[in-house]
Specification:
It contains nine helices and 20 strands. It is an alpha/beta fold.
Length: 446
């Protein structure tokens, strides 16, 4: 199932703006940021979908986090509270007021008592419905369950932005969010799926649409990702958890097959950056590769297992999809083309794939502690000159990766790419450099 005639050089970029005109689709894809309470992404009109994990607290006073174990059900809702115990959570946190103001509505099932605080103030209350006046600040919306009936506990909490009480079920996505991402050609759901360090193994462990929040350890449900792709008519890129068993992969494929608009083509990737030792999926692949005697070299065994497991996933999906197209992605390290060769060539994996994906970033060296004193004296133009010089180096490796992929009949795409102007090793706390990098991002030369 070669799709080379349909594959474009789609770069999955972390970018703020696109060159597309309003109403046009950009020749780019986009990774979506993870769903968390402090994200300015604001994907859902029900902000509780991004609520933080429950914080054990006391009804009145006491520490912010008592450290106690909370009694929660299989979907993450509070099943019961001990005497004097409460459960708190946060939404729209640390956004400096950059989220909608006005009258929010909290809907819930069950019997109990909910309090609100920080940026939110209760103005009216009746069983199952609370109106809040929200004045956006940096504290966010603080929700605290102070009483719940164990026989009919408080659950199915929804905290709805102003004006969406009657439409949130049919129109769950925040319109400015749709406007922002609607111009892209592909949406990669790596962070929405909490791919890195994900310990999910079985289908029963996944997040369902009924779970209390999508900000937990297993990410956003496939149902929601497919609905977003269908609504925007954008191809989705899915990353399977590295520990997922065959049943999980098969059920995921079946849902996509049966529910994704047939005019859309999904991308399938096994985990994310399995070549990268900072993630647990790399250690898992290394261990499995050595156990299976794929190579006596630890790193090569790691790459070989990634290659082998990727092909196994492709074959499972192909068994479910039949003649319907999907894009089979093998990924490698952009700066080390050798990794791509190992992944493509092990057991002729390239014969069962469509594209090689890399992440050609530029400018990352400027955030190094060893260059801190020099960089903080730079002008914006000097930063961008350094980026251009780095781009010329990156292009050489991109060309090598392209030639390696092309010689095996594969296309080359990027799963991530673009500027990597970010401090690390303490430089992230240097405000002068942070401001400089922000200015460089907004400069027309970028």
């Amino acid at each position: 199932m070669k799709l080379s005639e349909r594959i474009f050089s789609v770069f999955i970029l972390f970018v703020l703006f696109s060159t597309a005109m309003p109403g046009q689709q950009a020749p780019l894809g986009m990774n979506l940021g993870g769903v968390v309470d402090w994200s300015s992404q604001l994907p859902f009109v029900d902000v509780f979908r991004s609520a933080r994990n429950w914080i054990p607290q006391q009804v009145d006073g006491g520490p912010w986090d008592t450290g106690e174990q909370l009694n929660v059900d299989s979907l993450g809702w509070i099943a019961a509270l001990d005497s004097g115990q409460a459960a708190g959570t946060l939404m729209t946190r640390d956004l400096n007021g950059h989220y909608p103001a006005g009258t929010y509505v909290c809907l819930y099932d069950g019997e109990g008592q909910i309090r609100f605080g920080f940026d939110a103030r209760t103005t009216s209350e009746s069983p199952g419905r609370i109106e809040l006046e929200v004045t956006p600040g940096n504290g966010g919306i603080y929700l605290k369950i102070v009483a719940t009936n164990p026989a009919d506990p408080v659950r199915n909490i929804r905290v709805l932005m102003p004006g969406f009480e009657t439409t949130y079920q049919s129109e769950p996505f925040y319109p400015p969010f749709l406007d922002m991402i609607g111009q892209y050609r592909v949406l990669r759901f790596m962070d929405w799926m909490r791919t890195n360090n994900n310990e999910t193994e079985t289908w029963s462990q996944r997040t369902s649409p009924q779970h209390r929040s999508f900000a937990g350890g297993t990410g956003v449900p496939v149902e929601v990702m497919v609905e977003l792709a269908n609504r925007l008519q954008i191809d989705p890129w899915f990353c399977m958890p590295h520990r997922a068993d065959d049943h999980f992969v098969r059920e995921f494929a079946r849902y996509v097959r049966d529910n994704l608009d047939p005019g859309l083509t999904p991308y399938l990737e096994y985990s994310n950056e399995v070549w990268n030792g900072i993630f647990s999926q790399a250690g898992y692949a290394r261990q499995r590769g050595l156990e299976l005697n794929l190579s006596s070299n630890e790193y090569q065994a790691q790459l070989y297992f990634y290659s082998m497991r990727s092909v196994q996933l492709f074959q499972i999906w192909q068994g479910e999809f039949g003649s319907r197209d999907f894009v089979r992605v093998l990924a490698s390290q952009s700066a080390n083309p050798w990794t791509g060769e190992q992944v493509m060539d092990f057991q002729d994996a390239y014969q069962n794939a469509d594209v090689l994906a890399t992440a050609p970033y530029f400018g990352g060296f400027l955030g190094s502690p060893s260059l801190e004193s020099r960089v903080q004296q730079m002008s914006v133009d000097e930063v961008l000159d350094s980026c251009m010089a780095d781009i010329n180096r990156v292009k050489v490796r991109m060309q090598t990766n392209y030639q390696n992929a092309q010689s095996r009949g594969l296309g080359l795409v990027a799963y991530e790419a673009g500027q990597h102007l970010a401090g690390h090793g303490g430089v992230e706390n240097n405000q002068t450099i942070t401001d400089l990098f922000i200015a460089a991002n907004y400069h027309p030369r970028m």
